[in-house]
Amino acid sequence: RSWLKYLLDKHTQWGIDFLERYAKFVKERIEIEQNYAKQLRNLVKKYCPKRSSKDEEPRFTSCIAFFNILNELNDYAGQREVVAEEMAHRVYGELMRYAHDLKTERKMHLQEGRKAQQYLDMCWKQMDNSKKKFERECREAEKAQQSYERLDNDTNATKADVEKAKQQLNLRTHMADENKNEYAAQLQNFNGEQHKHFYVVIPQIYKQLQEMDERRTIKLSECYRGFADSERKVIPIISKCLEGMILAAKSVDERRDSQMVVDSFKSGFEPPGDFPFEDYSQHIYRTISDGTISASKQENVKVDAKTTPQSPPLTPTSLFTSSTPNGSQFLTFSIEPVHYCMNEIKTGKPRIPSFRSLKRGVSLIMALEDFSHLPPEQRRKKLQQRIDELNRGLQKESDQKDALNKMKDVYEKNPQMGDPGSLQPKLAETMNNIDRLRMEIHKNEAWLSEVEGKTGGRGDRRHSSDINHLVTQGRESPEGSYTDDANQEVRGPPQQHGHHSEFEDEFEDDDPLPAIGHCKAIYPFDGHNEGTLAMKEGEVLYIIEEDKGDGWTRARRQNGEEGYVPTSYIDVTLEKNSKGAVTYI
């Protein structure tokens, strides 16, 4: 019996140890999943663009695809965290709780078995004591009987001794009978308890231990299944993440990227015309034997030389003067004049101050203000960006004015809340800002209309070497100074503004605003209102204007459709874009 109990004790303890070992395995797997998810998130964070960075990357499809892959990888890391949480809650936590309950139940069953055995041992001791006492009394009764018989047969024994021995015999015989009855009762009780112990109590305890071990096995089976289910539940979402990566890879468009490079760096300048033929032979005097004819020809040549204006020398402005066979002159730009202007500002030698130099400096400042120093294509984009910023500022000031007026009305109706006059300086300042912004918008729109008007007439221009580049009144002469004498310059069609250069006549640009980021729709949006853009949950859009505090972001689909979407409905990712020195191609 003790050997069987030992085996049961050892087996149940082994079951609990195995359960705890599997729980430790699950815990280590959870730590692996958590570390894996953490490392993936750190990797995504390392390669994701910084939203606060000023240098934004170009919105190439390859960059967008990579950023989409990073987003999908971040979602994948989130699913690994879900797996870890599910395992921790459904498997590891359940195993630890069940192991504690199992230890308590096993301890209770073993204690019941020990108590039953102790009770049976006690019954056996009582029965054994009564048996020994009965045996001892029987021996004492036999001794008393032998003593009585010896004295009764002894003729020398007195009657009193015989009577005394007889009484002793009767006493011992009575005590032996009582012990016999006690022994019989104890024996019957022990046999009953022993039968109950081995046929009722112990089998019941063993059955409880068996049921406990079977429940442990069932719990392990459930935990095995839960361990696999934790992984299987996230497989559909992980598959979507992988499908998103594949779609991002398919969205890479090399032609679109090339077009974006062209749109970002094209200057809009027309290719230079053909170089004119420079006839130097008109100054060569041929010697002819006929003196009259020679003299006449020489005289004509001298007259032509006097009447023909001399060509001005070449200057750093890259303007050169050429002569045609009929004696006329024209000026041609071979390099962008703005380069020379900027070099004059940075590295030019100091000159004598004059009204003409002051006029040139003012013209340069105006050129920087209206971006006339940029190529037409870049100038149009800069002006459009400035107009958009001014419109946003105007809207903000208008909202502030409305808020101040409402507050003023509240103060007038409820004077205890505040003094309406205290808001007047702020209202005046806001109105001044609104007027200033409107003037700025009007001025920039005029410049934008001028650029678009110039680029609209590019088809009427002829690409030939006989078209002279214009030099208007008040412009810089080839020597680098300004002149007001119209006779000293070659005339042409007048320009719209004196401070604009001829090289600003550019190609028209109807391209959409460049994308500054992308977003993913978190919630669907109907977009019934005018100017809004409908979107579906999970749809990826391009960002062309950030949220300026009004709660709306301007976005564009891949098909070119644009509109505003709620900022709270999307997950915005602003990418880096190359800024700084502009390269004109």
Automatic annotation (TrEMBL):
GO term, biological process aspect, one: endocytosis
All copies of domain REM-1, residue ranges: 373-450
GO molecular function, one term: lipid binding
Source superkingdom: Eukaryota
Compositionally biased spans, kind Basic and acidic residues: 452-466
CDD domains, sorted: F-BAR_FNBP1L, HR1_CIP4_FNBP1L, SH3_FNBP1L
Domain SH3 positions: 514-575
Membrane topology qualifier: Peripheral membrane protein
Pfam families in alphabetical order: FCH (PF00611), HR1_TOCA (PF25610), SH3_1 (PF00018)
UniProt keyword list: Autophagy, Cell membrane, Coiled coil, Cytoplasm, Cytoplasmic vesicle, Cytoskeleton, Endocytosis, Lipid-binding, Membrane, Phosphoprotein, SH3 domain
Region feature (Disordered): 452-509
The keyword Coiled coil belongs to this UniProt entry's keyword annotation: yes
F-BAR domain span: 1-257
Gene Ontology, cellular component aspect: cell cortex; cytoplasmic vesicle; cytoskeleton; plasma membrane
Coiled-coil positions: 124-168, 380-414
Segments passing through the bilayer: none
Compartment(s) of residence: Cell membrane; Cytoplasm, Cell cortex; Cytoplasm, Cytoskeleton; Cytoplasmic vesicle
Family affiliation: Belongs to the FNBP1 family.
Protein name stated in the entry: Formin-binding protein 1-like
Species for this entry: Nannospalax galili (Northern Israeli blind subterranean mole rat)
Gene name of this polypeptide: Fnbp1l
